[in-house]
Amino acid sequence: MASKNTNSSLHIVLLCLCWYLISSLGSQVTKKILTIYPKPLFLGEFQFIYTALLASICCLIGQRFHGFYQCFPNGTFPRYYNNMGERRQIDCITRPSKLLLFTIVPLSFCQFVGKYFGHTATSLVPVSTVASIKTLSPIFIVLTQRTLNLGKVQLGKTAYFSLLCLIVGVWIIVRKDYEQKKPISTKGPIELGAYSSYGIICAICSMLIFVAQNIYGKSVFTYQKKVISQKMDNAKAESPLPSYVTRKSTSCERKNYDKLTLLLYIPLVGFCLSFGWFMTLEFPDIWNECKVAGFSAIPWKLFFVNGTFHFLQAMITFHLLGEISTLSYSIANLMKRIAIIAVSWAFSGMQVTTWQILGLLLNVFGLFLYERSKSGTIQEKKI
């Protein structure tokens, strides 16, 4: 029994390490792409369509091979098989419906706008700056809930102290990154450093968009509990594509959507929503460049590597949500953000100062303290 628990713990640790590595490398590849080819809308369009393609391939493999289907927690795939291993759903891909589209259109819109601002910020400021700004999301979630009266927000002194630590930590990291940044020349006459303030604004906008997505998801939908796993109860919406179910309908039944169905349709709808903007703002420049230098002007290898990392990160997130508790996932996700910041400093080659380490430690302490205080509040409500 002890050996089984040890193997399970080792499996989770290795999975988290892979998660951190893929997320950190994916962020660096994104930075590399947007540095040599600053087309944030094009990168977002490619991620959308490539993610949908990989999700379709996974659905096809899961339908054909029961062993592959069983490697993932319940709710990852459409219900191809029942508990006895017999086929249940014939269609490889869940057919779209009005309810499905109504569910995913707001999420797809937030994905499109959030990606655009996030990619723009990544092209203008260090990855560590973007990642540290994302750690401010709990503050804006609390402010939005209080402003719009979306729920009874009861925070103690510990939670407020944790939010203060987050603010100070992010301020230190952003300030020191700004002081140490090395302007990188682009194709235009203006250097990257001139856009640092705009990049920070874009990073804040991206974070706010995803906060709005999470608030919308919690106010209109509730997380799936009984069908997938009790471990997903109130899981953080930081996962790339969280699984939602609708509130009580007229038939008093809930409509459940698996992860790969969401991972397939949300990018497709996001692609359609952003296609007009892409054709208007970036496609003419891309077409002119391709006419001169051919399609080799686009760093396709980096695009495919980035898209693969993006998809693998989502799949690992889904697997972790089905294997560990909510608090454990929150702490693991906290450490992922810290890993991205640390790896960003290592790849950038900048000299890490004592102040930056202090800001990082304040981020760790603030996020951990916030998760613990929030978890304690939830337990008190249950009791």
TrEMBL record:
Keyword Plastid: no
Residues making up the signal peptide according to the UniProt record: 1-26
Protein name: Sugar phosphate transporter domain-containing protein
Membrane topology: Multi-pass membrane protein
Record domain Sugar phosphate transporter: where: 11-370
Cell compartment(s), UniProt: Membrane
Keywords, sorted A to Z: Membrane, Signal, Transmembrane, Transmembrane helix
Main location as per UniProt: membrane
Gene Ontology CC entries for this record: membrane
InterPro entries linked to this entry: Sugar_P_trans_dom, TPT_transporter
Record flagged with keyword Cell membrane: no
A Pfam family this chain is assigned to: TPT
Transmembrane segments: 42-62, 124-143, 155-174, 194-216, 262-280, 300-320
Organism the protein comes from: Torulaspora globosa
Domain of life: Eukaryota
